[in-house]
Amino acid sequence: MLALIVLVALVACLMSACIDPTPPSQPSEPETPGTGITWYSYDEGMKIAQEQNKPVMIDVYTGWCKWCKELDRVIYSDTDVVNLADKFVCIKINADKHRDLAAKYNPTGGVPTIVFLRSDGTETHRLGGYPRGGAEAFMHEMVVALNNA
């Protein structure tokens, strides 16, 4: 029972890292944020992945999550990450606008969540939260996904 309480407290703390107490005064971010990486909608991206037999990287985000914005600003604009992302079909899912897809790929609701899939849609692994270790650590996860694709 104590373990369950500790687990619930830990999850609550982790999820609170992306909660901004002030609501956005403007509409959510555009569907394709991030500099240098080509982002697709879910349907278009999955079709391309199957046609080209490429692995998929899905970013589940929200427009109000400061760590999601930091991913766009720092990680997704890193030249090496952008180059490695060309080996994937990259899909962004706004969890506020596409709740059904967000629930499918991110049932816990914490953002950001990055999910790596094979071209057939089979999940290989996922990352929750902002990657500790920055772009280098994120690229390592991308390479793991490529090796498992």
From TrEMBL:
Keyword terms, alphabetized: Oxidoreductase, Signal
Entry keyword Signal: yes
EC number: 1.8.1.8
Boundaries of every Thioredoxin domain copy: 16-148
Domain of life: Archaea
EC class: oxidoreductase
Record flagged with keyword Oxidoreductase: yes
Name by which UniProt lists this protein: Thiol:disulfide interchange protein DsbD
Annotated InterPro entries: AGR/TXD, Thioredoxin-like_sf, Thioredoxin_domain
TM annotation in the entry: none
Molecular function terms, GO-annotated: protein-disulfide reductase [NAD(P)H] activity
